[in-house]
Each structure stands twice: as structure tokens, then as C-alpha cells.
Amino acid sequence: MNHQQVRELLKAVQAGTITPEEAAERLRHMPFEDLGFAKLDHHRALRCGFPEVIFCQGKTVEQVVTIVGRMVEHGHTILATRAGPEVYEAVRAKHPQAVYHPSARAIVLAGREPCEPYEGLIGIVSAGTSDQPVAEEARITAETMGCRTTTFYDVGVAGIHRLLAQQQALSQATVIIVVAGMEGALASVVGGLVDMPVIAVPSSVGYGASFRGVAPLLTMLNSCAAGVGVVNIDNGFGAGYLAAMILRAGRREGARKETP
Q1: Looking at the domain that runs over 121-249, which CATH code has it been given?
Q2: Which of 56, 68, 121, 221 has the fewest CB atoms nearer than 10 Å to its CB?
Q3: pLDDT tens digits, residue range 11-54?
Q4: What residue spans define the domains of the chain?
């Protein structure tokens, strides 16, 4: 939908030939901006609740900077994942307000309007310190989307008393993300201790027979604990995004109950 089509749509609303609700539904599906190397979905937030996220891996520095610039012009909140320091420095040169989270490899720029905070709390658990970068990607993603988080790092099953000491605090969360490599048993253990959804993230941390995350992936998929879902290997972003959507769904359901 181009500018002329938008004007025609607004004129139709003014003339009363379509309702504002029908116009809003059409606007939900407005197309993208074609940059030649990328097609930016500027209305992702309208449809899905959060703007398009930039996955930097495989893109040139110039491509990322161009995408960020166009999104900033539209007032979007920026979350760029898998971004190296050289990408951040190039982005910061154009946008000094950009914030870099080295462990998560994520760049964040606040949008024109801050994200509406979600009710609830996301607990983020990592088995070992080596799993922390994936856990941090989940944390930054969730917080950028307006969620509160709390972290429980280095509480793997090799020293399970460390996890059990946090059981009361874990029970305060609304949804829990568990990041683990090696054999990935931590997700099942956490799932057996809590009464909220658990999002399991297999990490590629481990010796050879962990097959760079395949072993924990299979363990998590075969979890005997009910209520455990699994995202892809090292996909902290996907886990953080899913957790935020769970909180968002809860907010929507609460609003429906409050409507007379």
C-alpha cells in the first residue's frame, strides 16, 4: 500500500464508505519498504506487537546501519541481535543513543514511544557460566519488549543444591526460560519444580558428544516434565520473545475479563 492508497483509504473513511475498523484492519497488512537488499516490515508492531528485529549475522555492517537508520526514522524500537562490536561502533557513529550488550551481542535503541510494560515476571535460568551469553540474549530481548526479568545463573544439575536454594524465588516467576548445554537435564529438573511454563533453550556448550547442542536439544524434546517447550539451539532471542508473548497473552486475557 503506497501513499496514494493510504490517502484513498482515509478518504473512504471520511466519506463513510468503509468503517474505521475496516480501515485499521487493512492498515495491519501494509507492505514493506524495499531497500534492494532487504524489505523492511514497518508494520510488524501493528500486527505482532513488536517491531521487526534485525538479525545481524550474515549482513554487512553497511546493511545493518542502513536498516537501523530507516527504522529509527519510523520511530521503531530497535533490537539487533548477533551483532559484533564493529557493527555496534558503526551504528553508534550514526545513533549515539544506541546501547550495546556485549554478552548478549545485542544492540538496543529506544523507539519514539516506549514499549508498554507487561505484567508478570520472566525467570531466566542458566546451567553454567558458559551458557550465560544465550541467557543474556533472552534477557535483553524480553526487557526490550517491556518485560521484567530475574536471573538465576550457574545453577546446573552438577551442583543441584544451587538450584534448590532458589526454588522459592523461582516460584515467583510467571514463565521461566532455562538455558543448558552438555546433556541439557536442567530444563526437566526445573519443570518438575514449578507450576508455570518452561521454555528450554539448548546451548551449543559441551564436549564433543554433545554435538554442539544436539544432545541437549534431544534431551529437552524428550523431557519427562510436563509444561516444557523447546526452542532451537542457542536461540535466546526466540525464548525471550516467546516468553514476552506469553505475558502479552495474559494481559490481553485480563483486559477481556475486565470488560463488562
Answers
A1: 3.40.50.1970
A2: 221
A3: 899 999 989 888 877 676 567 788 899 988 888 887 888 889 99
A4: 31-109, 121-249
